[in-house]
């Protein structure tokens, strides 16, 4: 068994990774040892990378012991790069982690300075070459065979070979060395995979002091909505889904989300959808960062944009009502149906997607149709004076109904190109309690008892 990781105190005693456990025990009999759990380090780094999203939209895992954060456009939210590093280092330190951290123009330079430079360093723009010259060759993440060859030639510092022509380095050490130098100097792109996809429409707002009141949360949300909707206005798009995330000082994440039926960039309307959910947030000691994301947006036509103008008040009110209802219930419970050119009643409509889709044809209004149409007709037992006459009574779900009025039949046949099944003769009947039903007899009377079905209910 060998040492996989050591604490700071153990390192001060001379214990390092790779040592045999028995030798360490011989030196320090009271050494506290814990077995390494397979995959635990990877899971921990993944969790820390997701936690670090509060500092940047782009956070990636750098195995076996690092994180890569893209700080572009984020440091001003914490008062500059120095304050940004201080905040991250202090926060991780409060969780019990020893952190070495650096900011540079390239991932490779930041990696090198964080591990071989000062504890908390900021490399000024364009100064990678000067900073790297004083660092050991291992800071370039080179293979051990290349490091051994460089050591043999006396090139133990990056400054001893960084200015050599790439062609010379390539002939002597292969492609890896000049590639690592190019990555560190920014001449070659180094790809990283974020733990979560970066949303293109995202706005952030940090707080100098933790915010624990609903008033403070409301102000932050309105500011973020204003900024995001201004972007939408310039790009001619509208919001369909939106997520408001609040990061607590203790590391916990709270979030609420909304959706809209129409693309919208109306700040007041969007805030009203969020408003009743703000109370569900649990600030505890307070929130230090707010993030507003729009994972789903759509282009807005002039007609859709006019929904929010005073000239289209009725349409606007309907759209707002649907959005507010959807914010309180499951959006899947709200549907709009459009007519389809089919004879069979259960096939004569479809669900509108999106909800404002225009119908290709009009609803049939020359004959009565039930308010509630069953998805599939349900079999019933019917007594009729003659087979072609309306029902006198029927049994539905073990309950008997006496018919006092009836109207029909209305014959409906299937399209010949879809099926050659039996036609249906529909009747509208009313029972002794005033309830009305829509039922049909399937096919003609041919000497056998015909089959009857209930298909809908009138109001």
UniProtKB/TrEMBL annotation:
Residues 3-113 form the UmuC domain. GO terms for biological process: DNA repair. One of its GO terms (molecular function) is transferase activity. Keywords: DNA damage, Transferase. It comes from the Bacteria. This is Nucleotidyltransferase/DNA polymerase involved in DNA repair.
């Amino acid at each position: 068994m060998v040492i996989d990781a050591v604490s700071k105190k153990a390192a001060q005693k001379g214990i390092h990774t790779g040592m045999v456990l028995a030798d360490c025990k011989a030196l320090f009999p009271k050494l506290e040892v814990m077995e390494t759990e397979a995959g635990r380090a990877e899971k921990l780094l993944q969790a820390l990378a997701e936690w670090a999203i509060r500092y940047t939209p782009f956070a990636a895992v750098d195995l076996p012991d690092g994180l890569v954060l893209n700080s572009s456009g984020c440091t001003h939210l914490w008062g500059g790069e120095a304050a940004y590093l201080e905040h991250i280092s202090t926060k991780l330190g409060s969780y019990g982690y020893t952190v070495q951290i650096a900011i540079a123009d390239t991932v490779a330079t930041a990696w090198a300075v964080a591990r071989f430079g000062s504890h908390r360093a900021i490399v000024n723009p364009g100064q990678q070459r000067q900073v790297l010259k004083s660092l050991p060759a291992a800071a370039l993440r080179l293979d051990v065979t290349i490091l051994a060859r460089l050591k043999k030639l006396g090139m133990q510092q990056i400054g001893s070979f960084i200015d050599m022509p790439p062609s010379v380095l390539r002939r002597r050490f292969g492609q890896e060395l000049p590639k690592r130098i190019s990555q560190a100097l920014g001449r070659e792109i180094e790809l990283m995979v974020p733990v979560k996809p970066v949303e293109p429409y995202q706005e952030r707002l940090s707080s100098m002091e933790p915010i624990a009141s609903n008033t403070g949360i409301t102000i932050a949300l309105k500011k973020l909505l204003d900024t995001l909707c201004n972007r939408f206005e310039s790009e001619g798009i509208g919001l369909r889904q939106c997520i408001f995330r609040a990061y607590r000082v203790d590391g916990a994440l709270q979030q609420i989300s909304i959706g809209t039926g129409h693309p919208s960039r109306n700040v007041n309307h969007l805030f009203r959808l969020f408003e009743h959910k703000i109370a569900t947030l649990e600030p505890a000691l307070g929130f230090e960062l707010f993030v507003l994301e729009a994972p789903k947006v759509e282009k807005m036509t002039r007609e859709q944009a006019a929904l929010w103008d005073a000239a289209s008040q009725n349409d606007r009110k309907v759209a707002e009502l649907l959005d507010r209802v959807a914010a309180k219930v499951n959006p899947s419970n709200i549907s709009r149906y459009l007519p389809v050119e089919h004879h069979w009643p259960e096939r004569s409509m479809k669900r509108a997607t999106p909800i404002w889709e225009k119908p290709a044809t009009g609803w049939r209004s020359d004959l009565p149709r039930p308010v509630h149409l069953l998805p599939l007709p349900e079999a019933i037992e019917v007594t009729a004076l003659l087979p072609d006459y309306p029902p006198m009574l029927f049994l539905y779900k073990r309950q008997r109904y006496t018919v006092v009025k009836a109207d029909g039949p209305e014959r409906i046949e299937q399209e010949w190109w879809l099926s050659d099944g039996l036609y249906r003769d529909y009747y509208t009947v009313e029972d002794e309690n005033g309830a009305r039903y829509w039922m049909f007899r399937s096919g003609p009377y041919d000497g056998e008892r015909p089959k009857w079905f209930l298909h809908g209910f009138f109001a």
